[in-house]
């Protein structure tokens, strides 16, 4: 079996790996939409979708079929090429970012040294899809949405980048695998504790970067109809939808990886001697990711939308100062070899 | 031709075509988008040169932040290309002459004769364990710490200058301060109970009209 | 490698300026409108401290620190001192003007201090990288200062021109530097000088680089034919900004030329000598001739700057220690003169009125004879009339040119300075022999301004009578 695998050309091997990552991801995205409707439904004391399949379990499939059947309407005077290119630009970085994501020790498509930087660079590209969509639609609501989104993402990207600088200082590496390895130990040695302010900033900035409630002013359906994708329909719209949810999953998985120890088990090694299921493994990563994905939905069901100027204030005047100060604190802690995180 | 060489030519072609498009497109938004493409493909070229840190930072900083703001501004502007190009033909001959002379000089000097592999042999590829980022960081914070700090001061000046030149309080706009708004607390900030003496004069009239109705019900 | 704190001693003046700028920047946020004078006081204190530190760390053998990026030698000490003193005067003159126009804000001081910091970095640079960064720091601050009066359309236009042409000049310079790096494999002046001495003129890349370098230096000095920005900016920018960018930056530009051309490329001096010669002759000619036709005094002073740059180049192109020393003397003296001239313009301005035209100087003698005398001193000095220091400066430069057997060049320079004397003396005539407009209000200035202007004007006379001290300092730098 191994020989057969090694005999394949490298390009084919990589392609197979990509498919092995992307297909489950798209499946997750589909069922995440169902989970969202169900979770929010229960939070609001409703049942949520329950007609297609057992308790609505086939709803995402039905939605997908419906969207595929619909016509893609291109507005008059829209920039046709860019209009169709925008959703693809939106989804490409959301998928490409997974290339450096380690699922377990050594289980990664491209184990590069500057993994964290790569992620940051790619997540910063996602905004192009939104801006281009907003401009190419030739609609004022779309343009307003795009403008809001651009300003918001640029603001929060800085805070997010600084939060990641804190992680980088704490772990002493840009390699994602090495960052997880640096958190080895138990629940309390993970980075969420020493980097608590950065963790908070990262999570909230992550929500803002993905344009999710309560930071969804780019869509803002009560103010600017649907924002940047108001003119989109059918598959073109579905791709934006996919990109948004893929980004949410990515941010959740990264939060798990960078601050919650990734695939590491929360229990100290001594307690779980012999119980394989409680040891380190992919299932822990999945569990943590699910938790953060749930937080995304929870927040949406709980908070009303932020006003635009308040979003800007939060990003520039609150988060950025917090991160800068905490980077200094972390750097000092690392220099002082503060136990239990950085004891030599 | 090796795979790397093939990739080099692919990205080099994309960079050149995109750069040409930047200066020939009539629509400024298209021009900016081509510039983005040029940046991305030059980042790829840098990565081919084993400068992965610089390549990724180029994408992160220029494409991810600077060009977004560019696009932001360009989309809002109503640029009239016709007036911009009004003097174009008139200045074309002299501009073209200078460009041609400069390009010729540069080709003569910056060519294989002076910068070929003989004068500058290809550096040995870095060992697999070498981290580009770490090496750059070490250099920046030891050998070049003084220029690095000056660069930081230049950025500070840019911030101060930009704010000085653009920030102005207009007297005719109404501002609200979100910082003050979020500090509002339950209680005295939100609601103020004002005690007022009831107005005597009105009372008899109301009482007179209200009292009979109540009695009938 | 561990960081040696001793590295920090030679740059203490820079650190003092940086700290002052940062303190003013932050403090300004909390100052009430009526307390803004604190910014001014703090700036002056910072400059005085920096002058003191320059003296304290100065003297002794040249010392290279920060891994070859910084050097502190005689040139550094003297030019640092000159820049700081001239800037100190500039800030004193600028205050009343700023107050009258509602521009008395912390940013003026912050940007001014950062510009000074850039100049200090330039005079102590020991590598192309450091000198370029210092230049950019200075230039960026000055661009912003030119546009400082946001409601002035002329100011915005001037800033735009300054920015575009300044960026072009920097681009040229940087391109030249990259060529020199390609030819010599270093950006530090010492190794570059060594490599250049070995290769000489044979290396085409080197020559190519030097051409761009000289063009860049020409842009920064405002020498003909790279002078296009100078008159428009002098005319359009607010006068305090002109005061700041017309005085001390010339000293810094001189340091730029000395560091790059002499410290780095002295071995190919014959090569850049020819280029500087062309720039010098054109600058003296065009500057002096066009200045005659100006009625706007700021514009006239701009063209006069161009002609003075020509004279500084005369000293540089001589290529001898004596020539460099005389060019240095000239640059310092010019900065003092120019500060005085623009200082007088600031004194003559008042709320709602900017002294810009020759007519605005009419009958200055009847209004305030002391300032009239000071302005006359400045003009005599610029014209090169003995016994003012301007005469000494011109004489020294000409002597160095004659010594390398370029007598014709000296004659050309003398001819142009005689032409130039016309428009300087015309100013003196206007001051003393024309009657002032009857509705001109009385000149009121604070004691500090009067003291600074007296110091400024009289120093021109004193230096002219006793040039030995400054001259010997200049000469001791180049031995």
TrEMBL record, chain A:
Keywords: Cell membrane, Membrane, NAD, Quinone, Translocase, Transmembrane, Transmembrane helix, Ubiquinone. GO terms for biological process: aerobic respiration. Its EC number is 7.1.1.-. Its main location: membrane. One of its GO terms (cellular component) is plasma membrane. It catalyses: a quinone + NADH + 5 H(+)(in) = a quinol + NAD(+) + 4 H(+)(out). It is found in: Cell membrane; Membrane. The keyword 4Fe-4S does not apply. It is a multi-pass membrane protein. The keyword Membrane applies. One of its GO terms (molecular function) is quinone binding. This is NADH-quinone oxidoreductase subunit H.
